[in-house]
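Quick question, first post here. What does this chain look like in 3D?
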Amino acid sequence: MRTLAEFRQFRPLTVGRIEAALDADSSSYLLKGPRGCGADELLGAIAQALLGGCGGCGHCWACREVADGEHPDVLWAQGEHGKAVAVEELRRVVRFASLAPVQARYRVVIIPDIDTLRLTFPVILKALEEPPTATKWLLSAALIGAELSPVASRCFTVELEAPSDDEIEERFREANVHATAALVRWTRRRLDRVSLFARLTDAERYLSTFQDLPELVRDDARWCMELVHRLTPEDLGNTGDAEEVIQCGLEILIAAHPENADWLRRATRASLSLSRHLPVQLVLAELILRAG
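> Answer (accepted):
Ran it through. Tokens below.
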């Protein structure tokens, strides 16, 4: 987990906004920024700054406990295996928030991607309307629509910058991946995609195959099934991660061939199938094999 000081190297404006928000001493904060901008990490860094008594050094006991997810006064509300947080889980979170801190000055509740949890908005809103004095709510969202506006109105909202290419390259270096111009471009400035690509044996070769599909596919069923096998991301055990990296490949395919109506149709259909969580090999076969 990065500290606010470490984030400052690449995003001083974002960190300055966060520090100003903390100085305002609100009971709830909402980080608003594009998906994949590192909002989850920033939420953790804010928790360290609030609880460490050190401004979030990253090295003291409290900071280490927050980073390891072991601090008794911090609760991350996240669904299991990529699923949304259930309303019952949010009620448990509210009960946690109502109790006095065990060791630190505050209790901290962290809820990433709150804009994806529409069914829980009433529960969260009620909790924010009557916040205990020793509880801090840390939320993040990519978008603040009409449904989320009542929640956002009770938070100190901080606008986040997207990562720069330099920050993306640094993350690739930390993952021991050579940051080619293509890989950096294909992340679309999303930090989560850096970690996803780093888990592929040869990310650039894998993703380039999507880009070259119109030239690679031929009227040979055995060859097409070989392409399906080649594009099945066996390095990624988690189905959600496999779906995400294939979605990245579809975006690359569309960007490379924007005027190819046939492949635009195929990619759009495959993207819809991914959203329905169909088996990834079936989605790839649907993409590659010629449709009538």
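The two ends are 50 Å apart (CA to CA).
The beta strands are 28-32, 74-76, 107-111, 135-141, 156-159.
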